[in-house]
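If you are new to this repository, start here. Below is one unmodified record pulled from the training split, so you can see the exact layout before writing a loader.
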Amino acid sequence: MNLSVSTVTVANKSIGFSKNKSGEGLVIVTQKKLGEITGLKGAALKRAHFEYRLEAGKALGAGLVAGMASGDIIAKSVIPTKAGGLRAVFDRVENLTAPSQSVSAKDKEIARLQAELAALRATQAAK
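And here is the target side for that same chain:
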């Protein structure tokens, strides 16, 4: 997934994103990982991780909004959480498939019977 986001600058360091288990998504790095990258500890690390989460969230949101504005990404559901936040599911339009346009044998038979019934009614009405 490419949301045109690669890094966020925190504590004068360029911090990237981690990958999810499938390797396709972007996730915010943990506080522990941020500490390893920046060398920060204690309260300074907590402040830096808070700042990173805000900036990374804004960057990911901006990439998502750009994809939605271009019509490449659509929202499938948005659900409010008990904590007052939102849980949203998005999908790329290219991953969606339209329903089959083919008509089943059953639908053809129904259409044939309806046409036959309409012809019989027309014949009865003409008498």
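Two things worth knowing about this chain: The longest strand covers residues 73-80. The beta strands are 7-10, 13-16, 18-19, 26-27, 73-80, 86-92.
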